[in-house]
Amino acid sequence: MKKTGSIIICICELLVGILLLINPVGFTTTIIIAVGIVLILTGIGSLISYFRTEPVYAARSQNLAKGLISIVAGLFCAFRSRWFIAVFPLLTMLYGVAILLTGIAKIQWAVDMLRLKMSKWFLAAIGAALSILFAAVILMNPFNSTTFLWTFVAVSLIVEAALDAIALLLSRSRAHSDLY
């Protein structure tokens, strides 16, 4: 089950990378607006829950405040999505940190595969090394333009997803053959 979730994550990374290559600003704007709509709907749900709940329980749940904050955040995302595009370099740094942490987690995966004597452990190690390398490049931000940075992020997502999927599939086939 865990590997199925990992494969789904690889597919999502691949899809996001491709969409970022095709139209980075449009894709990102659409995602931000979609998140805004979800936040607004969640906020409305919290407000409804607050007013439908007994006052004693409603006071503990804080759903009124949660709902209002969610609606305000959702409205900001939906109507000020370009703000996120303007602060893309900061968001990219956060992405770089996330990729670095993912790379460190992939080291664990590679070492586990090695210790379990799986023959293709080096694919996971390559994926970990690439994740850490991509994170380092993103965090150092040597790019002259935001467009090149978008392209680099997209390509790094695609490469990581492909390597992770290959390593997952090979480790799955190896684990399956070990059972029989």
TrEMBL record:
The chain crosses the membrane at residues 7-25, 31-51, 63-81, 87-109, 121-141, 147-170. Signal peptide: none annotated. Coiled coil: none annotated. The keyword Transmembrane helix applies. Keywords: Membrane, Transmembrane, Transmembrane helix. One of its GO terms (cellular component) is plasma membrane. It comes from the Bacteria. This is DUF308 domain-containing protein. It comes from Bianquea renquensis.
